[in-house]
Amino acid sequence: MNDRAPAPGGLALVQALVNTLDIESGADSLDTPEGLARFGLAAEGAEGARELRESLRAVCLAHAGHPAHRRTTPLGELLARAPLRVALDEDGAARLVPATEETSPASPAFSAPLASRVAAAIAESLVEGTWARLKACEAPTCHWVYYDRSPAGRGRWCSMSVCGARAKMRRYRAK
């Protein structure tokens, strides 16, 4: 739905996950084997991925100054179950990476590998100062996630030509 460039670095994963649901049409790519495979998930991981997706959407709405679209499990609770480890390169550079040999929590629907990749992406973006620029469109029929590249960081819509134009037209007609 959005005509913006993808988010930088690991945030592209977060953006892609949240944007698996087109709220306006109801199409959910996590309903398809191809959509699940894109995130390394099996069918039993879809429910956990949807829960993670909606918690991420709520945070992205908060980044844009909007209330959550619905009640969700707090993102911190979900990511607390995501195993990470510190990887050190030969030159001493350190980074967080998903722990590959950790076991999944008790919930069979929880996807620890996906949550770990998301947690690592968020940690990386916090260090880079880009996390707060991942926002959700304010249009209630959209909530598509986009990376706000505006100089002031005050973007409101995923696309000025679609959601922005609709909002401006509604305001104009209301006058």
Explain this structure to me?
By secondary structure, this protein is an alpha+beta fold. It is 39% helix and 11% strand. The chain has helices at residues 11-18, 33-37, 46-63, 75-80, 112-128, 160-174; strands spanning 21-22, 27-28, 84-88, 94-98, 134-136, 145-147. The protein has a two-stranded antiparallel ribbon. The protein has a two-stranded antiparallel sheet with strand order 3-4. A two-stranded antiparallel sheet has the order 5-6. A hairpin with a 5-residue loop joins β3 (84-88) and β4. The chain is globular and about 60 Å long.
Secondary-structure map with pairings?
Layout: H1 11-18, E1 21-22, E2 27-28, H2 33-37, H3 46-63, H4 75-80, E3 84-88, E4 94-98, H5 112-128, E5 134-136, E6 145-147, H6 160-174
Antiparallel strand pairs: 1-2, 3-4, 5-6
